[in-house]
Structure formats: structure tokens, C-alpha cells
Design brief:
It is built from eleven helices and 14 strands. The protein is α+β, with helices and mostly antiparallel strands. α1 crosses α2, α3 runs antiparallel to α8 and α5 crosses α6.
Length: about 425
């Protein structure tokens, strides 16, 4: 039997396979919202903007994007803006790039405790670096940290880790103290402190009943995992020093939005399998991996972030309240803070005569109000520790679900 082909994009795969997938898989509210956003992105269902040229009545229409963090179609402008703001904020000094990775034995625990796990991965990595670099044996100064959470490996596997961009120096009192060239902190010291912090908080959370164990974990299994990870050498890597840190910021910007895979990596897609490219970090060769459609959807959905939880966080000299300290550093180093370049909005022009088009109408619809029309079947089991998305009745046209705004046009009757 020949299976029908589908568009080889993340959106095409979800449109083709998500309805049947959700009938047999437990999904959280966040995962359902992400799937709906991916399927509806840049479709007329979310509304549109319309422009007109009054002389010949030529009109153009552009559909709205979903702007969801897991959607690979519409993240470009937001990513560009974040990168420009971040590069303008970076201090004019060398930076180190430190990657903290949790042992793979904790992947199942992460799945049922996403918010707690990600919060404490940020906290453990930041406190480890801040405390060690405040020690006079290493630097003895307050540093700046920019941390970004990633949860996937190159094959979309479960691989929670956090990237931290660290200033190669810090404020000691009111004076700038540079780090030793190509040296931050002994990696063995960082590993031990990071592991100790995480395990301490993990045990306290379990004792307080703040953790949900996976349903197939017995008490003995839990204790065995604790013993195993307590003896392991946790994976922490230090890279640098990089001049100004702009290159690392650019690297991080590619993974802040758009989910674990972008469309250009997908080679082919059908109802039977999805094939995509990845680079094997062992030999640095580009390879392909074929997954069933079910496996592909599961891997993409596993990485949907918790709604409202920040995937980038700032500490020390890079925290929001440390602007005056950053200015002190710039004054001492003799370099003013850069302003992000102002981008003038591009006016839309008629493709035939080149004259400007006038914005005529804006129609906006919220994804949450379109649940019944876009994903009518929300059945299926719900995994432990998550709550099913509630069904909502479709709102009538011209209500909150559809906001239609006509704009006054010059010379219009």
C-alpha cells in the first residue's frame, strides 16, 4: 500500500499526524497548545493584515503568525531582536562558555517535574559559578552570567543542559578584575559543587513531597538512581575565552525559539516515517536519522517548555538591577554601552507601480478560541502529573475571538 506524502515540514507533519497521535498519548496543556499553534501558524485562522493601493484597488494580505516558542516558522524576527539587545548589553571583555548537563538517569524525573527541574538546573549552575568566582582563590569578584536552557540533543533526544556565558572578569569592590587568560575555575571543582547542590535540593524536594516520581519507579529504583548519580562524574564543560562573547550569544540565539528542529533539517516525511539530518558530535559528520511519525511527534512534544517559564536568565552583572555596575565596568574599560541599532519599519509597496500601500484592516483571532475548529478531537489519555486542556466552546464571529479593525484611509470615502 502506497502511503500519501505530506509536506516535509514540522507543520505538515503535525497537520497530518497529530489528530490520531493525541488519541493514544497523554499530553499536557502546554503540549496541546504548542501543537495547535504549530498547525495554525501563518494560516487565515489566526487572522490577517490587509493593505490596499487606493488608485487601482490592489490589495495584499498577510496571515498572522502564532509566535509560540515551539513553532519553527515564525521565530526569526524575535530571535533577531533578542540577539541585538543581548550583544549591545555584553560587557567589552572576554567571555567563557560553560555547559552544565544533567545525568541521563534523571530524564524520566525531568519529564514529570519540568518546572522544578529546569528552575533548579538554572539555580545550581548559576550559584556554582557565582560562589566559586567570588572566592579569592579563583577570581574574587562578582561576574555576569547569561544562562540559556536547552533540553534536546542533535537527534531530538532528551538531553537537559544549560549554556552559561560567563564574563572573563568581574567587579571587586569598585574595580574591574580580569580573569586569568584561558582560565576560569578547575572543572573538577565545578563538577563537584554543581552535583552537590543539585542532589541536596533533590533530596529535600523529595522529602517535602514536592516531586512526582515516574509511575514505573519503585522506592528501590529511586534509591538506586540516587546512588548511581551520586557516584557519577557529572558532565560540565568549559570553553573560552571568547572575545566579547558575541559568537556564543549568536549560537544561543539559534536555539531560543523554534523548538528542537527547524524545517531545513527535514529530508522527507510520510505517514510511515520522518527522516532528518543531524551532525554527529562524535565524528562531526552529517548523518540522517529515520523515525516513525509517532516517534518524531513524541520527541518534538517532549521539549515543549512550561508556559510562562523563562528559557533565558541573567545573573550578577547581567541581571536587570545591575545596569549601574555594568556602566562602572564600561567606564573603567573606556568603552560606552552600545545601543541596539534602530530598525525602521519597511513600508509595503505595490509590486506593479512601487507606490506605498495603506494598511486597511486587521483581523485577529486567539488560538485558544479556535481549539474546537482547528483540533476538534482533544481526546486521549493524560500523562501523570499533567492536566488535559479543557474544551472551550467556539466564540461567535465578531466577538472576543475575532477582532476586526478597519483603518481610516487617506482619500477614502
Amino acid at each position: 500500500m502506497v502511503m500519501a506524502a505530506m509536506e516535509a515540514t514540522v507543520q505538515g507533519i503535525f497537520i497530518y499526524g497529530f489528530e490520531s497521535y493525541q488519541k493514544t498519548h497523554g499530553l499536557s496543556v502546554d503540549q496541546r497548545r504548542a501543537a495547535q499553534a504549530i498547525m495554525l501558524c501563518q494560516s487565515e485562522a489566526l487572522g490577517y493584515e490587509e493593505w490596499i493601493f487606493l488608485n487601482d484597488k490592489h490589495t495584499e494580505q498577510q496571515n498572522h503568525s502564532c509566535r509560540h516558542r515551539s513553532c519553527p516558522r515564525c521565530h526569526g524576527a524575535l530571535t533577531h531582536d533578542w540577539l541585538e539587545r543581548t550583544q549591545a548589553q555584553l560587557l567589552p571583555c572576554d567571555h567563557f562558555h560553560v555547559i552544565f548537563t544533567l545525568p541521563h538517569e534523571l530524564n524520566a524525573l525531568w519529564q514529570y517535574n519540568r518546572e522544578w527541574s529546569s528552575d533548579h538546573l538554572f539555580k545550581a549552575s548559576a550559584e556554582t559559578l557565582k560562589e566559586l568566582l567570588a572566592d579569592t582563590r579563583y577570581l574574587g569578584a562578582e561576574v555576569g552570567l547569561l544562562s540559556a536552557l536547552h533540553t534536546w540533543g542533535r537527534t531530538l533526544s532528551s538531553h537537559p543542559h544549560v549554556h552559561v556565558l560567563v564574563t572573563g572578569g568581574g567587579l571587586q569592590g569598585e574595580s574591574w578584575r580580569p580573569a586569568k587568560k584561558d582560565y576560569l575555575v578547575p572543572v573538577g571543582v565545578i563538577k563537584a559543587k554543581f552535583r552537590g547542590k543539585w542532589l541536596t535540593w533533590l533530596n529535600h524536594a523529595y522529602a517535602a513531597g514536592a516531586l512526582t516520581l515516574p509511575p514505573d519507579w519503585t522506592l528501590e529504583r529511586w534509591r538506586q538512581i540516587l546512588r548511581t548519580i551520586a557516584r557519577k562524574d557529572w558532565n560540565v564543560r568549559i570553553q573560552g575565552a571568547y572575545r566579547h562573547g558575541h559568537g556564543v550569544a549568536n549560537y544561543l540565539s539559534r536555539y531560543l525559539r523554534g523548538g528542537p528542529i527547524k524545517d531545513h533539517r527535514i529530508v522527507s516525511a510520510s505517514s510511515e516515517r520522518v527522516t532528518f539530518r543531524y551532525r554527529d558530535h562524535h565524528d562531526n559528520h552529517e548523518k540522517t536519522l529515520a523515525l516513525t511519525q509517532e516517534q518524531f511527534l513524541s520527541r518534538v512534544l517532549w521539549h515543549v517548555p512550561v508556559k510562562g517559564q523563562h528559557s533565558v536568565r541573567y545573573y550578577g552583572l547581567y541581571s536587570t538591577g545591575a545596569a549601574h555596575k555594568r556602566q562602572e565596568v564600561r567606564d573603567q574599560l573606556g568603552l560606552p554601552e552600545q545601543e541596539p541599532p534602530a530598525t525602521e519599519p519597511q513600508s509595503r509597496q505595490c509590486p506593479y507601480c512601487g507606490h506605498p500601500l495603506f494598511h486597511r484592516v486587521s483581523v485577529r483571532r486567539q488560538i485558544s478560541y479556535l481549539r474546537n475548529t482547528a483540533c476538534s478531537n482533544l481526546g486521549g489519555t493524560v500523562q501523570q502529573g499533567v492536566q488535559a486542556a479543557p474544551l472551550t466552546q467556539e466564540r461567535p464571529a465578531q466577538s472576543q475571538s475575532t477582532e476586526r479593525i478597519f483603518l481610516a484611509l487617506p482619500g477614502a470615502a
